[in-house]
């Protein structure tokens, strides 16, 4: 049986790295996409040690030309594509009255336009394999949080993108699922102002396990929330 072929965006750290390692333990062939090659190469070594194989793809999903090059390279390296994990994203906190246009546009560009571009570029390969698209949204895509207007808007947007794609691609045999993590202890919080009790957050590995279950999707469930830390998936 051929290994499942997976493209993970934002694979150099955090949730993306954990997702890559979860698939690697099952012998998957992975394309690891992000902006920083050195981080991707470190994860690729971990993937190999875990039993998978990995190709490093430099990809900036805020740049349409970079997305086109990166997805083309990923599909070529893997010989096709079975799973796309739209994980890469950015986070920012500011009261709405202080949210500047540059931050708003960056959130939109990375968190919403990025998955649109990556998915559109990957779609021919996914149609060929009748594959699966996994969107990593957030609990901020299900409810609003003060100080997170821009982030919530993009995660609600990703939810809408996935919901519409699910209906549009159903007859073509491409399955679309969405995962909604709560706060997850990653480096995304390192430079965010405020007091964050990271001991109460999920680990990236807990989120990755839900991504794995969502991909397997034996029961046809479309929306997956991540249980509280220590909870059963």
Q: What's the number of structural domains?
A: 1
Spans where pLDDT lies below 50 across 5 or more residues: none
Order of helices and strands: EHEHEHEHEHEHE
Strand order of the largest sheet: 3-2-1-4-5-6-7
Do you know the CATH architecture? 3-Layer(aba) Sandwich
Level-1 CATH class name:
Alpha Beta
Reported for the largest beta sheet, the result is: 7 strands, parallel
Coarse shape: globular
CATH homologous superfamily label: NAD(P)-binding Rossmann-like Domain
List keywords for this structure.
233 residues, seven-stranded parallel sheet, Rossmann fold, alpha/beta, globular, 44% helix, 6 helices
Write the layout of secondary structure elements.
Blueprint: E1 5-9, H1 14-24, E2 29-34, H2 37-50, E3 53-58, H3 64-78, E4 83-86, H4 101-129, E5 132-136, H5 149-169, E6 175-180, H6 204-216, E7 223-225
Parallel strand pairs: 1-2, 1-4, 2-3, 4-5, 5-6, 6-7
Helix pairs in contact: 1-2, 1-6, 3-4, 4-5
What do these coordinates show?
This protein has helices at residues 14-24, 37-50, 64-78, 101-129, 149-169, 204-216, and strands at 5-9, 29-34, 53-58, 83-86, 132-136, 175-180, 223-225. The protein has a single domain, classed as Rossmann fold (3-Layer(aba) Sandwich). The protein is built from six helices and seven strands, in the order E-H-E-H-E-H-E-H-E-H-E-H-E. A seven-stranded parallel sheet has the order 3-2-1-4-5-6-7, with helices on both faces. The chain is of the alpha/beta class. Helix 2 (37-50) links the parallel strand 2 and strand 3.
């Amino acid at each position: 049986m051929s290994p499942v072929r997976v493209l993970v965006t934002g694979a150099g750290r955090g949730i993306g790295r954990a997702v890559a390692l979860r698939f690697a333990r099952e012998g998957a062939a992975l394309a690891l996409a992000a902006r920083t090659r050195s981080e991707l190469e470190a994860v690729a070594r971990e993937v190999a040690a875990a039993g998978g194989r990995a190709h490093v793809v430099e990809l900036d999903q805020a740049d349409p030309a970079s997305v086109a090059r990166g997805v083309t390279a990923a599909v070529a390296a893997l010989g096709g594509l079975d799973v796309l994990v739209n994980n890469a994203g950015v986070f920012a906190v500011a009261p709405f009255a202080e949210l500047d246009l540059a931050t708003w546009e960056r959130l939109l560009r990375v968190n919403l336009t990025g998955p649109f571009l990556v998915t559109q570029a990957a779609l021919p390969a996914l149609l060929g394999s009748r594959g699966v698209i996994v969107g990593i949204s957030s609990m901020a895509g299900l409810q609003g949080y003060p100080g997170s207007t821009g982030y919530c808007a993009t995660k609600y947007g990703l939810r809408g993108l996935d919901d519409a794609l699910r209906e549009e691609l159903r007859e073509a045999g491409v399955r679309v699922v969405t995962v909604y993590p709560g706060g997850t202890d990653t480096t995304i919080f390192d430079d965010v102002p405020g007091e964050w009790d990271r001991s109460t957050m999920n680990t990236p590995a807990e989120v990755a396990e839900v991504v794995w279950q969502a991909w397997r999707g034996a029961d046809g469930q479309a929306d997956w929330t991540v249980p509280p830390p220590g909870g059963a998936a």
